[in-house]
Amino acid sequence: MTQITYPTIAECVGNTPLVRLQRIQVPNNNTLLCKLEGNNPAGSVKDRPALSMINLAESRGDILPGDVLIEATSGNTGIALAMAAAIKGYRLKLIMPANMSSERKAAMTAYGAELIEVSKEEGMERARDLALEMQAAGEGKVLDQFSNLDNPQAHYVTTGPEIWQQTHGQITHFVSSMGTTGTIMGVSRYLKEQNSAVQIVGLQPAEGASIPGIRRWPTEYLPKIFEKTRVDLILDIAQSEAEQMMRRIAREEGIFAGVSSGGSVAGAMKLAEQVENATIVCIICDRGDRYLSTGVFDSH
C-alpha cells in the first residue's frame, strides 16, 4: 500500500488566495486584487513571521526546548505566535494594550498563551519596553518582531513569490498597511528584485486615527526592520475610510476582514484614481470575526 503523507498545520501556512473585486467598481481600467491572509490557520498574515521567527531562532540555537518566549503585540502576531508556540511546545507570554478586542485575547489564551496587559494610554510603546524589561530580568526570551529580520524574511520567501506567481509577473503596485512593517519590507525586497518598476505603497493612520495593526510610530519606536527606501509612496488613511471600506467589502464582496484590511483596500482605491491599466495587489491581513465585539460592523 502506498504511504500517504498528510500535512501538519504548520505546513498549511501561506499559499493564500489572491482574488479580484467583483462588484466594487475600480476606476481607470485598473485591476484590484486582494491577498486573503485571513485564510492562514491562525487567521492572519502574521502566521508567516511567527513561524519564521521561531523556526529560524531554533535553527541558530537562539531558543531551546523549555524556553519561555515573550512578545509585545497588538493582536495578530500574538495569536499567530500562540499557535506556533503550541505547535512547538514553548510557553509564551504576550504583552498587549488592554483595549484590544476580547476575541483577540480569547484566541491567545485558547492556544495556551499567558496575557499581560498594559493600559490603553501606555499602548504598544510600553508593551515593547516591558517585554525587554522581562527579558533582562531573566523571565524569557523576546522574539521582537519590530527588530527581528526573520519577520520580513518570511514575506521575502513566501508572500512576495506567491504574489509574483499569482499575478504572472503582471503586478504594477503593491499596497500594504504598515505596523511592524515586516510585510511591506519583505514583499518590497522580493518584488523589486523581479521588476524594479513595481511601486510599493505603504499605509499609515491619519492623525487621530486608531486602526489596529497600523501605526504611526514615534521616531524612537520606529521598527528597526523598516527601511524607508523600500517604500515608494506613503498614504494616510482616516479611521472613517478604513471602517467604511471594511464594511463595504464584507457586504458587497463577501470579504470579511478587519479594519486595517479596509484601510488597505481604501488605499488601493485611492491609488487606482491616480493610475491607469495597473495591476494593484493589496493585503487583506486578517478576518473580521476578531473585531465583532468592538461594534465596527454594526449598522451605519
From TrEMBL:
<feature type="modified residue" description="N6-(pyridoxal phosphate)lysine">
    <location>
        <position position="46"/>
    </location>
</feature>
<keyword id="KW-0198">Cysteine biosynthesis</keyword>
<feature type="binding site">
    <location>
        <begin position="179"/>
        <end position="183"/>
    </location>
    <ligand>
        <name>pyridoxal 5'-phosphate</name>
    </ligand>
</feature>
<keyword id="KW-0663">Pyridoxal phosphate</keyword>
<comment type="similarity">
    <text>Belongs to the cysteine synthase/cystathionine beta-synthase family.</text>
</comment>
<dbReference type="GO" id="GO:0004124">
    <property type="term" value="F:cysteine synthase activity"/>
</dbReference>
<dbReference type="InterPro" id="IPR050214">
    <property type="entry name" value="Cys_Synth/Cystath_Beta-Synth"/>
</dbReference>
<comment type="pathway">
    <text>Amino-acid biosynthesis; L-cysteine biosynthesis; L-cysteine from L-serine: step 2/2.</text>
</comment>
<dbReference type="InterPro" id="IPR036052">
    <property type="entry name" value="TrpB-like_PALP_sf"/>
</dbReference>
<dbReference type="InterPro" id="IPR005856">
    <property type="entry name" value="Cys_synth"/>
</dbReference>
<keyword id="KW-0028">Amino-acid biosynthesis</keyword>
<dbReference type="InterPro" id="IPR005858">
    <property type="entry name" value="CysM"/>
</dbReference>
<dbReference type="InterPro" id="IPR001926">
    <property type="entry name" value="TrpB-like_PALP"/>
</dbReference>
<feature type="binding site">
    <location>
        <position position="76"/>
    </location>
    <ligand>
        <name>pyridoxal 5'-phosphate</name>
    </ligand>
</feature>
<keyword id="KW-0808">Transferase</keyword>
<protein>
    <recommendedName>
        <fullName>Cysteine synthase</fullName>
        <ecNumber>2.5.1.47</ecNumber>
    </recommendedName>
</protein>
<feature type="binding site">
    <location>
        <position position="260"/>
    </location>
    <ligand>
        <name>pyridoxal 5'-phosphate</name>
    </ligand>
</feature>
<dbReference type="InterPro" id="IPR001216">
    <property type="entry name" value="P-phosphate_BS"/>
</dbReference>
<dbReference type="Pfam" id="PF00291">
    <property type="entry name" value="PALP"/>
</dbReference>
<dbReference type="GO" id="GO:0006535">
    <property type="term" value="P:cysteine biosynthetic process from serine"/>
</dbReference>
<feature type="domain" description="Tryptophan synthase beta chain-like PALP">
    <location>
        <begin position="11"/>
        <end position="286"/>
    </location>
</feature>
